[in-house]
Design goal:
The structure is a single chain. The chain is mainly beta and 210 residues long. It has one domain (44-197): Lipopolysaccharide (LPS) transport protein A like domain (lipopolysaccharide transport protein A fold), CATH 2.60.450. The chain is built from two helices and 16 strands. It has helices spanning 2-15, 188-191; strands at residues 34-45, 48-61, 68-71, 75-80, 86-92, 94-98, 103-114, 119-128, 133-136, 140-143, 147-151, 153-157, 162-166, 169-172, 178-179, 184-187. A six-stranded antiparallel beta barrel has the order 2-3-6-7-5-4. A hairpin with a 4-residue loop joins strand 8 and strand 9 (133-136). The protein starts with a helix and ends in a 19-residue tail after the last helix.
Length: 210
């Protein structure tokens, strides 16, 4: 009788379902595949040098989705044209580059200056390399040789020659400040023309120069 009970228990144990569990996810699964310190390097695109990157730390992670480059210690970047002439510089406290979708995300004291003397300041900036556009959903300030503008939303082409600022205020040099709630749209090619040829100011209700 005892052997019979042991046999039944053995057969029941053999028929129990075995649960197959995968190993627990470890933080090391998303660790960077490359970490570089004290970086000062040139980056090429399609065989042409386009950027210089200067940063204290550069992490490359191909496991996280989407894959990305991370600059947690700040970023300084110069942009060049095909003749290797500097077109603009960009700096930020923290930056991410999502290489598969060609999107830059810049956070904290974002500063840009281009070859035309335009300066941009904000705490946030996105640069979409596929759509060739730059935008920010936070307070932004744009200073050109002709005027100063600020607003809560900024959009521009990636050359920053055409841009729009909404909920903005602005002023021309040597003129009184004025405020408007409609979008301010600018074409830098037009702005470089002599002031007397501009029939209508881009910012409303500005006093005429005496």
């Amino acid at each position: 009788m005892g052997w019979y009970l042991i046999l039944i228990m053995f057969m029941m144990s053999c028929t129990e379902k075995v649960e197959h569990l995968a190993p627990a996810v470890n933080d090391k699964d998303s660790v960077s595949i490359m970490t570089s310190y004290g970086v000062n390097t040139l980056i090429s695109d399609s065989g042409v040098i386009k950027y210089r990157i200067v940063t204290e730390r550069w992490d490359v992670n191909q496991i996280r989705k989407p894959s990305r480059w991370t600059f947690i210690k700040g970023l300084f970047m110069e942009q060049f044209d095909e003749q290797f002439k500097m077109q603009a510089y960009i700096q930020a406290d923290t930056a991410w580059y999502y290489d598969q979708i060609k999107l830059w995300e810049l956070r904290g004291r974002v500063r840009i200056r281009n070859a035309n003397g335009l300066r941009f300041m904000s705490d946030e900036l996105f640069w979409d390399g596929l759509k060739h556009e730059i935008y920010s959903n936070k307070y932004s300030k744009v200073i050109t040789p002709e005027r100063t503008m600020e607003g809560t939303y900024f959009w521009s082409d990636e050359k920053m020659s055409k841009y729009t600022i909404t909920n903005s205020s602005g002023s021309f040099v040597k003129q009184e400040d004025s405020t408007e709630t409609s979008p301010v749209t600018s074409n830098e090619d037009e702005m470089r023309k002599p002031m007397q040829k501009v029939r209508k100011p881009a910012v409303g209700r500005l006093s005429k120069t005496v």
